[in-house]
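A.,

Following up on our hallway conversation. Structure tokens first:
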């Protein structure tokens, strides 16, 4: 039986030929992402970074979301969000659920005080019981005070910066600093555009999205390392081949792996975006589009960077000679 091949073995796509057009597209999208993050519409920070409470309640009976919204709004705790969810089973019946998000409040004389959020959470639970009945089940209660939310912002940023720095050091030692710089440029490209899409579609920017960004960073670097490894092999194998032609050859040789790995991941994540519910949607969306963007950056950002800066054609032989010297 003939094997299915998504990418023919004799594929010869001239990736480097389109590098300048790709550069214009990359810079345009990158600038648009920066505008989306810092100007309009801006990041929609979730409770993790703003402070506030998130309560997920479930009941076997249908939930009147309008009544729940009125009861929560009547408490006077500022901006709140009520969202219906479904799925699961409760006492042998279909489980109906609702997620209530109340942002940081200054009610009860507890302005900017972490302890005040606990009082708000208790009163929101009372309001939910009054609407849904005493048999309501609270599946999740997250309380984040302003002090904790401020720490989470800095720790999330530190995690992204640390991951990027460690990737640079890893590729620097495995290849050269020049190669590591190309990979880090690709990581910055992927991270900013992914965050820009999250801002554009108004998903909550929370710890789940930070975890998604770290996942995208790992995927992007892994894909770039595969491409760089093939380029390094071909540098040893084809010592007289022009660099642009060699990079095109390397990208085409790894294209099947790139498309299959990225494509299968996107299919699985796409299903979660559609059917996974509101809680998972932002997380899966960030990873799904981050993988697409990371695949693009490996082909049109990280690899062409080597062509732009030039690669030492004799570095592999020098390395072999150095290790052979007693």
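Then the amino acids I'd put at each of the 326 positions:
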């Amino acid at each position: 039986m003939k094997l299915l091949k998504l990418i023919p073995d004799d594929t010869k796509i001239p990736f480097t030929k389109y590098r300048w057009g790709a550069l214009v597209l990359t810079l345009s999208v990158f600038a648009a992402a920066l505008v989306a993050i810092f100007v309009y519409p801006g990041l929609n920070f979730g409770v993790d970074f703003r402070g506030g409470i998130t309560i997920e309640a479930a009941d076997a009976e249908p939930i009147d979301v309008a009544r729940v919204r009125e009861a929560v709004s009547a408490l006077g705790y500022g901006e709140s969000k009520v969202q219906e969810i479904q799925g699961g089973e409760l006492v042998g019946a279909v489980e109906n659920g609702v997620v209530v998000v109340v942002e940081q409040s200054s009610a009860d004389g507890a302005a900017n005080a972490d302890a005040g959020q606990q009082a708000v959470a208790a009163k929101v639970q009372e309001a939910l019981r009054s609407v849904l009945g005493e048999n309501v089940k609270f599946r999740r209660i997250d309380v984040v005070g302003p002090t904790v939310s401020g720490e989470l912002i800095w720790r999330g940023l530190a995690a992204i910066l640390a991951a990027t720095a460690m990737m640079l050091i890893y590729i620097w030692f495995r290849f050269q600093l020049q190669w590591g710089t190309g990979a880090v440029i690709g990581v910055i490209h992927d991270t900013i555009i992914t965050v820009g899409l999250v801002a554009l579609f108004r998903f909550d920017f929370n710890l789940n999205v930070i975890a998604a960004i770290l996942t995208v960073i790992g995927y992007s670097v892994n894909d770039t390392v595969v491409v760089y490894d093939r380029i390094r092999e071909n540098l040893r194998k084809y010592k007289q081949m022009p660099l642009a032609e060699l990079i095109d050859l390397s990208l085409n040789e790894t294209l099947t792996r790139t498309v299959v790995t990225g494509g299968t991941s996107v299919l699985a994540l796409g299903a979660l975006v559609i059917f996974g519910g509101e809680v998972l949607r932002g997380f899966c969306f960030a990873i799904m589009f981050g993988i697409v963007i990371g695949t693009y950056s490996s082909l049109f950002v990280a690899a062409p960077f080597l062509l732009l800066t030039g690669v030492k054609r004799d570095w592999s032989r020098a390395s072999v000679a150095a290790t052979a010297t007693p």
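The chain is about 65% helix and 15% strand. Curious whether your intuition agrees with the design.

B.
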